[in-house]
Amino acid sequence: MIIHPMSQLLNGVAPLPHLGVIRAQGTDAAAFLQGQLTQDFALLGPDEARLAAFCNAKGRMLASFVAWRHGEDEILLVCSRDLLAATLKRLSMFVLRAKVKLADASEEFALYGLAGDAVPAAGAAPWTLAALGDGQAVQLYPADGQARALWAGAASAAAPAGAPLDPALWQWGEVRSGIATLSALVVEAFVPQMLNYESVGGVNFRKGCYPGQEVVARSQFRGTLKRRAFIAHAGAPLSAGQEVFPAGETEQPAGVVAQAAAAPGGGWDAIVSLQLSAAQAGGLQVGGAPLALLPLPYPLLADI
């Protein structure tokens, strides 16, 4: 793994107003989510969190979540706030007779990103959950070796201890972690594997059915994965939804930017989903600006 020279700046506590919270409450909360999302919620323990995707029937991602139990019959799902309302509406269509109530609980919770020294359990495995102060902290994948966690507490709770961290730096750390959070700009653009979700704990291939499950499984087990996510750098501004083209090509894109942030050392870093053939060929560009691919910070799960 290449360590970014500015990674030491990822240290402190940042508010995360761009994220929101969906609450699933009721005796069937876990069973309902088990039948809708890509991860196993039936076996979700009190000290565990889940990275999961909500897909349409074609296996295309409508939202991504970090989720965990917040009591015996309550599960919180943190997602990008700009797609929360549409996601909540669509999920609610499938409740039917299930004993679960879904609601936008964003105003009831404060969300913070913790990085570096602000993460007390710096060596804990990703997607573990622990109490921290007046809230709960989910261990995330690191960014350039810097520990990271997602903290959630009541809106009135005291913020976790730590030096202030610029939210823009937190966003950059999200990109450098290589794990994209889906936003409204790229809804339905990706099957989970196009963002490497099966390699970072976002897809469980042993659980039962969910919308798009056949497409997701077929992509994995028939060796048909043709797109993967990469970290990339460009000198010009990047944004989610921008198309990536091979050198000299202006008609047929080879991929799309999934998430981007300004790099503190200059330029922009992004998570881009690309055709493997184009990634291997190189010479990529976005808006006419050269795009350089960087090594992923985690190994990919081989397709079968």
Short characterization:
The protein has 304 residues and is an alpha+beta fold. Helices cover 13% and strands 32% of the residues.
| Helix-strand makeup class | alpha+beta
Straight-line distance between termini: 25 Å
CATH superfamily heading: Probable tRNA modification gtpase trme, domain 1
Main sheet summary: 6 strands, antiparallel
Instruction: Please trace the helix and strand order, writing H or E for each element.
Output: EEHEEEHEEEEEHHEEEEHEE
Unreliable stretches (pLDDT < 50, length at least 5) are: none
Mean pLDDT: 94
Q: Helical element count?
A: 5
Number of domains: 1
Could you estimate the helical fraction of the residues in percent? 10-25%
**CATH architecture classification:** 2-Layer Sandwich
Instruction: Report the CATH C-level class.
Output: Alpha Beta
The shape, in one word, is: globular
The total strand number stands at 16
Strand order of the largest sheet: 12-13-14-11-16-15
CATH topology: Gyrase A, domain 2
What proportion strand? 25-35%
Q: Output the radius of gyration.
A: 19 Å
Description:
By secondary structure, the chain is of the alpha+beta class. It has a single domain, classed as Gyrase A, domain 2. It is 13% helix and 32% strand. It contains five helices and 16 strands. The chain has a six-stranded antiparallel beta sheet. It has a five-stranded antiparallel beta sheet with strand order 1-7-10-9-8, with no helix packed on it. Strands 3-4-5-2-6 form a five-stranded antiparallel beta sheet. A hairpin with a 5-residue loop joins β3 and β4. The model has no long low-confidence stretch (mean pLDDT 94).
